[in-house]
Specification:
By secondary structure, the protein is an alpha/beta fold. It is built from 15 helices and 16 strands. The strands form 3 sheets. Strands 3-2-1-4-5-6-15 form a 7-stranded parallel sheet, sandwiched between helices. It has a 7-stranded mixed sheet with strand order 10-11-12-7-13-14-16. It has a two-stranded antiparallel ribbon with strand order 8-9. Strand 4, helix 4 and strand 5 form a beta-alpha-beta unit. Helix 1 crosses helix 14 and helix 3 packs across helix 4. The protein starts with a strand and ends with a strand. The relative contact order is 0.16.
Length: 348
Amino acid sequence: MSEILIYGATGYTGQLLAAHAVEQGLKPILAGRNADTLRPIAGRLGLEMRVAGLDESEALRAALAGVAAVIHAAGPFSKTAQPMAEACLAAGAHYIDITGEIAVLEALAARDAAAKAAGIVLLPAAGFDVVPSDCLAAHVAGRLPGATHLRISIGGFGGFSRGTARTMVEGIAWGTRVRRDGRIVELPSPPRATADFGYGPRRTVGLGWGDVSSAWYSTRVPNIDVYFEAFPAMAAAAGLPAGLRKIIAGGTAQRLINRGIDRLPAGPSAAARQRARSTFLAEAWDGAGRRAASRMETAEGYTLTVWTAVEAARRVAAGHVAPGFHTPVTAFGPDFILGFPHVVRTDL
């Protein structure tokens, strides 16, 4: 049995995942919908390949035959997670993905009972979204038992892949989603704040990020907000009026925007990934005014994604995680992130 299959192996992140898995001594099966683009990658790495589209349910289930775990890397996950998860449930293969989309995490959490019945793990967000922030949030919540509020701030970016850009554009239609009293709600306008990532206060803007879902399951803190360092393009997109966001999210506008995305570089260069660092700040407080905060620096996002996703899949395939829906923290604990290079966590 081959332990791991990587679906979406022709994409920017998929190729990084495949190369890293080989470096770790694994021999994953590479899979996707296009044989012509898959063949040279599999040939270069000396790996088996399987071809199936996500809309071909029988072919997809057949592609998972004999596979212990799938790393699903083909986004946007709002469109691709459900068919892959259903195929994994049918085939008895563990499911791991690298999404940061709230709706995807919530949909997979709702399949917890089905995953337990099938004896498989459903583990979304096993990359930069949301491993470091999930681990830091749980660490801070552990420092302040009974915390009622949790704020996660994220800074430092080394660029985006085409797939990430498409996911971000697709999400423009949504307002800023946060968790209030255990429920996900949408704010009428994005909140603004500041965060000190270790180099002085920086302006931040609230965005609906995967932690709004995952941190709830990892910590049970009922009020959760996620902020990003407000670099110009992100701040401008977050500040668009709701009506304009709806227009941009329409089919015609999305097609035009995606044509522009197709002209972008596939993703950050290897040199850019090596230079860049990402920073996280998690703050928790309770009704009595007690507070706790911790900061963390990690490798650049795509680099970290391939490290954490491959390691997560390796552990899941080896049977180290109980069946059912998991976040990175419920699967591996809040110190999981500390096992990777260039990670420094500081309690403030």
